[in-house]
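Appendix C: a fully annotated inverse folding record. The material below is reproduced so that readers can follow the format used throughout the book. The structure is listed first as tokens, followed by the designed sequence.
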């Protein structure tokens, strides 16, 4: 079985009636045992859960503090996609906990690590692990692929698989996910520490069950 906490529900479990990045979407995902990827930025001196710059007052947006207060087990993780600089001073003790931050600028990444916050190294066809910030020894790798599944035909090496690697599922970029799902399944069955971030967490679980039987 693929552990549900190694599946990051992209912006929670959302639908036409449940808005992505909402408290309900995040609660839905955590209640099903999934981890969650969500977006954070600042608004009126507060850290809010929002992908794009807020147009309304901070009171109309979900606060990160409310998300962190949602009950989850010790294995479920929040992947916090940082959409604006300068959040560290607003986070305080919230920078520490069972979550990690990623997508910050190089300068912000150094600040987060200096504050003992957990960060992820981001890698894609445009960002190599060799080009990561010197001295940033992150436990997490965020493995993305914007225009094609480049890592399926490249040897990504032990530097990735010696860490906890979260693979961004291709449907987040409008592509068919099956080949990457198959790769993640194979890596997991080999005993490598690999997770996936997807809009289709339940569908991935079913795919894993079906495909792992034949491997």
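Designed amino acids, in order:
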């Amino acid at each position: 079985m693929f552990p549900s906490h190694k599946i990051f529900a992209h912006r929670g479990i959302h639908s036409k009636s449940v808005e992505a990045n909402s408290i309900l979407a995040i609660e839905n995902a955590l209640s099903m045992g999934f981890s969650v990827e969500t977006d954070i930025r600042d608004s009126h001196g507060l850290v809010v859960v929002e992908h794009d710059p807020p147009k309304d007052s901070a009171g109309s947006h979900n606060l990160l503090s409310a998300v962190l207060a949602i009950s989850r087990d010790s294995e479920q993780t929040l992947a916090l996609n940082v959409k604006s600089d300068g959040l560290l001073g607003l986070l305080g003790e919230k920078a520490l906990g069972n979550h990690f931050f990623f997508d910050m600028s190089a300068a912000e990444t150094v600040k987060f690590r200096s504050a003992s916050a957990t960060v992820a190294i981001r890698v894609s066809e445009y960002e190599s692990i060799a080009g990561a910030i010197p001295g940033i020894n992150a436990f997490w790798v965020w493995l993305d692929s914007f225009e094609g599944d480049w890592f399926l035909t490249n040897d990504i090496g032990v530097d990735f698989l010696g860490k906890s690697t979260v693979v961004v599922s291709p449907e987040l970029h409008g592509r068919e996910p099956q080949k990457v799902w198959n790769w993640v399944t194979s890596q997991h069955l080999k005993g490598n520490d690999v997770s996936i971030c997807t809009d289709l967490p339940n569908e991935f679980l079913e795919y894993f069950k079906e495909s792992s039987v034949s491997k």
